[in-house]
Amino acid sequence: MTYKIGFIGGGNMASAIISGLISKGIYEPHEIIASATSERTIDRLRNQYGIQAVIGNLEIAQNSEIVVLAVKPYYLFNVVDEIIPVLKPNQVIISIASGIPLDKLHLKMPEQRVYRAMPNTPAAVNLGMTSLCTKLAENDPTRATVERIFSAIGRYAWIEERLMHAAIAVHGSSPAYAFIMIEAMADAAVLEGMPRDKAYLMAAQSLLGAAQMVLTTGLHPGVLKDQVTSPAGNTIAAIAVLEEDGFRSSIIRAMRAAAQKSRDMEA
Ligand SMILES: NC(=O)c1ccc[n+]([C@@H]2O[C@H](COP(=O)([O-])OP(=O)(O)OC[C@H]3O[C@@H](n4cnc5c(N)ncnc54)[C@H](OP(=O)(O)O)[C@@H]3O)[C@@H](O)[C@H]2O)c1
Known about the structure:
Distance between the termini: 40 Å
CATH class of the largest domain: Alpha Beta
Number of helices: 12
Helix content: 40-55%
Shape: elongated
Oligomer: single chain
Strand order of the largest sheet: 3-2-1-4-5-6-7-8
Number of strands: 8
CATH superfamily of the largest domain: NAD(P)-binding Rossmann-like Domain
Structural class: alpha/beta
CATH architecture of the largest domain: 3-Layer(aba) Sandwich
Strand content: 15-25%
Bound molecules: NADP nicotinamide-adenine-dinucleotide phosphate
Order of helices and strands: EHEHEHEHEHEEHEHHHHHH
CATH topology of the largest domain: Rossmann fold
């Protein structure tokens, strides 16, 4: 039996991608296989998605047109060493492991078509952002397939690999910054008397809406900000405090720290 796509590792990120692929109709459940180390995960994958799931990575590598490496980075090369003997020339390999550069993957798998992808957790609700890079030519026919896979869980962007650290800061870690902002906004609303559940709804929906406006209108975020900022109004009063407290520079410094940490971890 040949599968269109096989996942080595069936945890959070693999599950998000599998869910997107099935719900968007990109692959049927019977075209997908995944591996894990525990019976618990195997059962979950079978029951939740109706896909084939096994303990054993060779079966995935041998029988899948595309292999997605979705284990934690520290297991990645053990897995690669295990599957190398059964990989076919030109087989598509997509690594989603953070901090593993293409050079190291190519060294192990010189005959395969290797991609590196960096998705983020909103992939679980089909609003993910994935950065993609490869050393393959721009007209390589397998690129479109890789794009289809990651468009199933949100949006994607091709980047040069040297920008992967910036990508980690701007979309890998940033859901955490947004969660803190939502929590803080809700706390402030609660302080003003808003019930907690409504405070979370209002804060989260407002950030979602603001992000959607940036994407849909294509307007500069500063222009959109100016549109909600009336003279001597509530919003400018809040913005003045944010600026006094170094809101922008705090975000910039935090993201530089994330990018630097990513550089250090890859070195
Ligand atoms: N989560 C994120 O936000 C995110 C974002 C970008 C990139 N990534 C990358 O995605 C990868 C997976 O992360 P995750 O959050 O999905 O991790 P996870 O939930 O811990 O899943 C890891 C999976 O790998 C399986 N596994 C472990 N050793 C294995 C082996 N030797 N052979 C086959 N399967 C094995 C585990 O099996 P069991 O379930 O049986 O233990 C588990 O299903 C990581 O490399 C991470 O850097 C994650």
